[in-house]
Amino acid sequence: MLTISQVSEKTGLTPYTIRYYEKIGVLHEPERKNGGARVYKESEVSYIQCLNKLKKLGLSLEEITEFTHEGCVMDKIQQEENLSNYTPTIEKRMEILEKHLMGMVAKRQEIDDIISLTEEKLAQKS
């Protein structure tokens, strides 16, 4: 079991952010010690790292909440749960990721255009 400070160190998120994610429902509230201090399992740390990766992809907290609504589908598959129960969830996740992929491709094209323009300007000064 890990404290919120240890989880913060492992995930790169601040304790404030972790508590905020709990407050808005992106993250389930963890177990607590007798004194009320949060304690986290390694599986929860992995889940938080996954949330952090989704955030870095550019997903909004609303999209992350929707994306993770059914929890970790891969864990459910490993537990040999019936995949057909999660088809709508998987399709929604794919839709969210495809939308963001299209956005990232458009941003890459924009950056490539800026790089080309910059290279042209620099070549003119030589």
UniProtKB/TrEMBL annotation:
Domain of life: Bacteria
PANTHER family: REDOX-CYCLING DRUG-SENSING TRANSCRIPTIONAL ACTIVATOR SOXR, TRANSCRIPTIONAL REGULATOR, MERR FAMILY
Organism of origin: Paenibacillus chibensis
Alphabetical list of SUPFAM superfamilies matching this protein: Putative DNA-binding domain (SSF46955)
Keywords: DNA-binding
PROSITE patterns to which the protein is assigned, alphabetical: HTH_MERR_1 (PS00552), HTH_MERR_2 (PS50937)
UniProt xrefs under InterPro entries: DNA-bd_dom_put_sf (IPR009061), MerR-type_HTH_dom (IPR000551), MerR_fam (IPR047057)
A Pfam entry, by short name: MerR_1
HTH merR-type domain boundaries: 1-70
Name this protein carries in UniProt: MerR family transcriptional regulator
Family matches, as Gene3D superfamilies: 1.10.1660.10
